[in-house]
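Hey, can you fold this?
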Amino acid sequence: MQQASPTGQTHPPSAGGGELVLGRYRRVRRIGAGGMGVVWLAHDEKLDRPVAVKRIATGDEAVARRAAREAKAAARLAHPAIVSLYETGRDEEAVYLVSELVVGSTLAALLEEGALSDRDVLQIGAALCDALAHAHGRGVIHRDVKPQNIIVPDTQQSGGGVAKLTDFGIAMLLDEDVLTRTGDVVGTIAYMAPEQAEGHEVTAQSDLYALALVVYEALSGVNPVRGRTPAATARNVGERLPRLERLRRDLPRELCAAIDQAVDPDPGRRGKLTDLRAGLRGHAGDVGDEPGTVEGSTLEPVTRITRRATRRATRLVAAPDAQAARGWAAEDTHAGRVQDGWGDAAPDGPWAWRPVPPSGRAVAAVGAGGLTAVALATLGPPPPFATPAAAVAVAAVVAVVPRLGALLTVLGLALWLLLAPEGVAPGVGLGHGVVVNRAGARAGDSGLALLVLAAGLPAVIALWRARPGWMSAPALAPLLGVLSLALAWPAIAGQARRVTHRLVLGALGCWWLLLVQALTGTTLLLGPVPGVRDPLRWTGSAQEAFLHVLAPLLTSGAVGIAAVWALAAAVLPFLIRGRHGALDIALATAWAAGLAAATQAVARALPGDGGPPDVRGAVLGAVLAGGLAVGARAARGPARERPGTAWRPPGRG
């Protein structure tokens, strides 16, 4: 016998003699709680099986009536894709709902973990179409379809179906007087059909909209209705969503069209559940079956058009009443906020097309243009064209095609250095060294070209699936090194959303810093790395550059610092959560101290004749790193909690 844990894992239930409920259900332990009650794992002593028992206190008459409605709605339904209700009863203090115990995870948790493939999503959506059709056929409108109310069972252990719909706490029974008045609003605003949000009549079309929006979010990685704040979410309700095909051009066009139709703001144009089911099931074999995360960025720029915002604001002012509006905000806050990050993933493979929001294009363009200007001004002889014009041209290209533009920029700079005419370089200073300062340079700076490729290609390739702005971000590490603050870089890299991107960024910042240090002869982090020669020895030869720069950096142990920074960046979001200020400060202090100590330990382990080098600006860099870690989290708000329990009985608890 197994039970579901809050994390979705399964463990044997604890033995013990808990309270006996309804004369036969022995409570084992509490495993969930919500607005309407507390959920317990229990053992059915009559049938010798695990069950879920939801206890709803009846002190409030409205809550008692809602519990009775929930039981009545669930009792009408018997479908493999709906959590089954076994029994209901009450005593002087509470109402009890006894349901099957589902071993698995919520759809919300699985999407956040990247555990589902596109094919899984379509199969789950089709199963839920059947579940809702069954409910509608028996006069039950769910009214709160969302990822947190969808359970994906562990079929190998539970024998369940593809997915199970739960939480009928606010369901509407069509053949009875409605529990709420016309104009009242119940549900979760981020998944609510426009007519439901405005307090109008709720029909089967409302559930169709919510389910289609869940599938849309699962495939695109973003719920375009949910804004940065509850008010922004309320303004977005009723707007036409961006076509799914724009976000996932790798999906079949007919599939995208079926989902887009079902999320039409006009109920009369949504079609039927059978139409959505046919689109999902008919294309399940045409999409990928590899699990992966599709992380989307906030699509507020799409809905920030003045005309639309004005119209929605007007409708919001005319909302049923202030209490309803506050209820929307509370529900949306409970559902969680969209978190920003520079690490959104491509939909299908590292080279797949993915739309980039305007803000991401701007950051990428500025970064690429700035780096191009620095490279043209400091590397090789003066270019035959104006440096500012070239930088602006690069920025324009990157703004249009960010990832491809970044790749072409790296290759173009390397090609320019390879084909550079014979001449004298300008000798621009950086710190106490010079980037290039040679007389009578021969045609072709292949050594410099190799360093440009060694720095740029790993950033472009490894971060192809990240927001393009991150590709040029490692340049901040050597800049911080000039200010004796290089240790602050892992705190910046730790702001990327995906852990793999944080690992890459942490390591790349150190790698770029070491390359710039070798190129300039300036101490940006460490003293001279053993084996790295003066730039005059290798700038004109790729072979010499490999022997006297790349090979020593890779073999001396200096890249161990890159590993330290990568790990520090990767774990940062798991430590600084933004929920308790004092705890965040304490953890950030410990994290920064550990970063400085580990970096210093690796540096002192490097071989050399001059004794172990010290890390430049270790204390100041660590202080800034800790401050940035806390400040960045405070600016974004608390990290979103994963759904608390991996299973839920049919109810709002």
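Oh, and this one too while you're at it.
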Amino acid sequence: MTNEKDKQLQAHTVDVTQPAPLTTNQGLKMAEDEFTLKAGERGPSLLEDFHFREKMTHFDHERIPERIVHARGFGAHGEFELYEDLSKYTKAKFLNDTSKKTPVFVRFSTVAGSKGSPETVRDARGFATKFYTEEGNYDLVGNNIPVFFIQDAIKFPDLVHSFKPEPHNEIPQAGTAHDTFWDFFAQNPESTHMTMWTMSDRGIPKSFRTMEGFGVHTFRLINKEGQSHFVKFHWKPLLGTHSLVWDEAQIIAGKNIDFNREDLYEAIDKGDYPEWELGLQILPEEDEFKFDFDILDPTKVWPEEDVPVQRIGKMTLNRNVDNVFAETEQVMFSPAHVVPGIDFSNDPLLQGRLFSYTDTQLLRLGGPNFHQIPINAPICPFANNQRDGLHQHQIHKGMTSYHNNAINNNEPHTTPVEEGGFEPYYERIEAHKVRARSESFLDHWSQAKMFLNSLSAPERQHLTDAFSFEIGKCKLDFVKQNAVNNLNKVDRKLAEEVALRVGAEVPTADEESKETQASKALSTLDTVKKLDTLSVAVFVTADSDPKQIESYVKELAANKVNYKLVSDRAMKLGDLKVTETFDTVHSTLFDGILVADAVEPLMPPVKDSIEAANRHYKTIGYTQKVGSLITQTAVKEGQPGIVLVGADLKDYLNNLVEQRHWARKL
């Protein structure tokens, strides 16, 4: 589907699949592109070889500095469709007109790792959305976790330095399981709540398509009357919120470091377009101080039981990028990119981000004209008195480049607020200049306790395991001890369990946070569960019945379940083509496995995949023909999600939709 942004990008697209003469960047057709210009066939190369110099100079500079954080990212195009007119809250036109579809570009990312790092590491995920609206670009720049590690932007460099590889040996890559991060955690307890989230299943999402997104900060919505409401933004995936388990995530990192981007790319390529609903938590201005936490504190959530999420529209990602560098790598986001009707709060982390995001692009994208790169350019006209600079693509006509001017009738002109001009919210502020933190920001443990109380038993066990792994990787005993002491302020039992496993002392004093309510929205146990686009590995052999296998794959396809036939070698099975082997895939890359046939005795890769699927609580189907071979594995027949398959897959699919069978006894 072509929208305004697609048309704009197509104007800048070069289709290299079409015949065309090879030229220099100035358009000169070249007769030769294999050899440098030399003084004789065996002689030295000549300085006058302008074609070589142009080609090599461009190659030498074709990599730009990677992002300091969020370097490992992948993006896609789509559109946003509004369900209901929100003019009573905001004058933003794209949130007022239900007849229009707004083009969007979304970039998903990990935070800590470099561009080449695996995608299934334990980490927060970036979820940045650019809306190309008729009033300019609006960027909703968030994460898959609704809170952040710090409360004030001045601490951001310290946070990032703590979780990046330690500078003396550049170890470890893309992970927080080391001393400097856990030292930061203990010395900066405001990070406790966010760390609970990253150590939970949310830190290892199954896919970009099945993770939530959050704007993190408190923003404002402003209507035409100038009335303000506080707001938090949520993206809710229509496939539900699903995660990996830790052992599975580690295996995938070795089997396919591009697991998440490949999943997104293939889903869009097949037409299985991922969808999210945009939800708003809206709070009247007069309710700003009604809670026992500060609504401007970015380390706090607004419990959905107190401030419900209103789902007001849907985003669909329906087109892959044509070129990852030109689009995904060169796209830039900033929370400072707003449109009339959306404004900022005094959240001190947000206030710092309004500066830092734009400042970063001056280095990454080569100067102040990054907004002219096609993926960043708005679809509406833009004009101002900014001029020149590196990579200026526009040719400005006329004498004037200042405001006010009489020579050019004061063009470009400002726009009155009544006609759509942006004006900051009229907020009265009377205060002393201080470097301080509000006392309302000082409770760092109550919401961490609420998050823990909201988890199901499996989720809580995963959290305990994650803390034990990460803190256990620290080499300094006092760092381990301080981290455990901080956990003791959240939950005594959690601190005791982690202390025992990492070799720290159980804190002598019980400093556990006050008991807090649970919030059902924080657990993923009861999330949406669908068969749509789940994936199954079907194990076959050369002796498998082609008709039976064809019946199985037709039933999978009819239920929108993706599948791959896997055997010990690539081959034809009737009219079916077996393209994957036990050397190239593993059960960790699928939502379930169906062992339709297997050679006696079980090949080690087959046994390993079956046992991995079992300990990852996935659905395992097997036929009567395979039944006796299951006893060669750790799988216990009759356990939840272990299904004897007959002529059809009805029982298997009923189990597969659950995705994980936590009641299974291993």
